[in-house]
Every structure is written in C-alpha cells, then in structure tokens.
Amino acid sequence: MTIYNLYIFDKLGTLLYYGEWNRLKQSGITKDEEAKLMYGMLFSIKSFVSKISPVEPREGFLYYKTNKYALHYLEVPSGLKFVLNTDNTSTGIREFLQNIYTKIWVEYVVRNPLWTIGTPVSSDIFKAKLDEYVKQSPLYGAKLL
Amino acid sequence: MAEEAIFEFLHSEIVNYTLSKENSKENDLSTLEYIGFTTGFRIIERLTREWPRFKDELDTMKFICTDFWSTIYRKQIDNLRTNHQGVYVLQDNAFRFLTRLSSGSQYLEHAPKFVAFTCGLVRGGLANLGITSTVTAEVQTMPSCKFHIQVNRT
C-alpha cells in the first residue's frame, strides 16, 4: 500500500493544490501542463461515463486501475475534485478522500480568511496537516522501490 | 460547528471590508476596534445578568478570562498575569481567529487585522463593567496571542 500523489482542482479546472509523496516516475512536462492534461482527461472520462452508462449513473466516475497504479476520483457537490494516485491494492480510498476534504480542506483552507476563493493554496499549515494526515494513514505504507 | 463558522466568516469579511474601504488609511485598525468595542459593550449585559456584582478588578478580569471568553471563543484564556497595578496580560495559546492561519510565522504580518476586533471586544466589555482601559495585542508565533490590558486610573 502506498500513496503517490494528490491533485485538487476546483470546478473551473484550476489546480488548487498538488502534493507528492512517493512518486517514482515524473511525467517530463511542467506541473501546469500536467495539471491541464489531467483535468482534461478527468473531464472527458466524466462525460464519457455518464453518456455510456446503461443505467442511471449515481455517482459517476469513481476510479480507474492499471496494472501498476489506481487513480481515485472524488467530486464534492461544490465541484471541487480530489484526485489521488495509489498503488492498485489499496482500499478504502473513498473515505480517505472524504476525510481530506472535511477535516483538512474545509478546516484549513475554507476557514482560512487569507485564502482567496479560486486561487492555489499557499498556506503552510494546510500542507503540514495534509502531510501529517497522509503519513499517519495505513494507506501510506512503506516506500516502494 | 455551523454557528462558529458563521461568526468566523463574518468576522473575516468585516476585517476585509473595513480595511479595504476607499479613503481609509492603510492598516487603520480603529474602525475594527470600535466595532469590537460596541459589540463587547452590549454583549456584557447579557452575559452578566445572572451574576452578582464583582468584588474587585481582578474578579472582573477572571470573569473575562473564563465565562466571557468561553462564550465567545469556546475556550478559556490559558494564562492570566497581572502586576497588581492595573496591567493584565491574557494569553490564549490557540486564539480562534489565528488557528486556521498558521502554526508558525507564516502570515505574521496579517495577524494584527485579526486581533483588533477582539481588543475592542475586551475593552467594550470592561467599559460596561466600569473599567476604562487600553487593550493591545501581541502575536509572536501563531496561533498564540497575548492581550495586554492597561487599566486607566483617574
């Protein structure tokens, strides 16, 4: 079990935060480009999933898996999107992402009067609390080599 | 959580509003302090209605540190010090308006904006209890904050 990295997007597609823990391979493009690419893909998957669904989709897109990693997606009603890459054996990521949203995002970003709505997060305390939460989680695991 | 958050959000908007008004000098915290003063003055009426009269000044300060503080900030003052000559220092180690800001020195330059209202609140509360004072605040590392109360004797 291990956690690779986390993207947080707002409903307009702005990358609000990017956190990285055990990422072993870099994409070779800038973070900005990577974020755009990521958001574009998520946007497409979302519309693809809802169009192609043979039954009424409830929550829509939840995650995808490859043979090496899994990408988990949580979209909250306000349109905020949490994207977490883990190895493909991890479980319980949905609750984990929910907790990041309610316990860390809402507490240390939304309730921080110095954060301007719709801008990337620069607060040290948010970063520290997120790091602490991720590292305490059993999902974090040992660093894979 | 809900009502606390509303108070917090309203407070931070009041801070933004009073400091961004046109024609107002930059870093002029007096409006904010005055809003706090009137709020404190009024709120004390409600908080002390079940209380007997206070014995002395120290007794009043203790009330501010315990009941007053916990009604407004859901916690008590962590430390009260005095030189017994009209100077009191109230220390809050996790001051509500600063806890989400930082846990060190980041944003330290913004700290005065978020303590001015509370200085007024304390001053207003004391004024209505018959103590004229000057209240200032000092922030060294967030989220801890010290309020200095200087009682003006006539």
TrEMBL record, chain A:
Main location: endoplasmic reticulum
Any one biological process term the GO annotation gives: endoplasmic reticulum to Golgi vesicle-mediated transport
Keywords of the record: Endoplasmic reticulum, ER-Golgi transport, Golgi apparatus, Transport
SMART domains given in the database record: Sybindin (SM01399)
InterPro entries cross-referenced by the UniProt entry: Longin-like_dom_sf (IPR011012), TRAPPC (IPR007233)
Family: Belongs to the TRAPP small subunits family. BET5 subfamily.
Protein name: Trafficking protein particle complex subunit
Organism annotation: Anopheles dirus
Record lineage: Eukaryota, Metazoa, Ecdysozoa, Arthropoda, Hexapoda
From TrEMBL, chain B:
Gene Ontology, cellular component aspect: cis-Golgi network; endoplasmic reticulum; trans-Golgi network; TRAPP complex
UniProt xrefs under Pfam families: TRAPP
Family assignment from sequence similarity: Belongs to the TRAPP small subunits family. BET3 subfamily.
Functional note: Component of a transport protein particle (TRAPP) complex that may function in specific stages of inter-organelle traffic. Specifically involved in the early development of neural circuitry, likely by controlling the frequency and amplitude of intracellular calcium transients implicated in the regulation of neuron differentiation and survival.
Keyword RNA-binding listed: no
One GO term (biological process): endoplasmic reticulum to Golgi vesicle-mediated transport
Protein name stated in the entry: Trafficking protein particle complex subunit 6B
Keyword Endoplasmic reticulum set for record: yes
Alphabetical UniProt keywords: Endoplasmic reticulum, Golgi apparatus, Neurogenesis
Alphabetized InterPro entries for the sequence: NO_sig/Golgi_transp_ligand-bd, TRAPP_component, TRAPPC6/Trs33
Compartments it resides in: Endoplasmic reticulum; Golgi apparatus, cis-Golgi network
Organism of provenance: Anopheles dirus
Cross-referenced SUPFAM superfamilies: Ligand-binding domain in the NO signalling and Golgi transport (SSF111126)
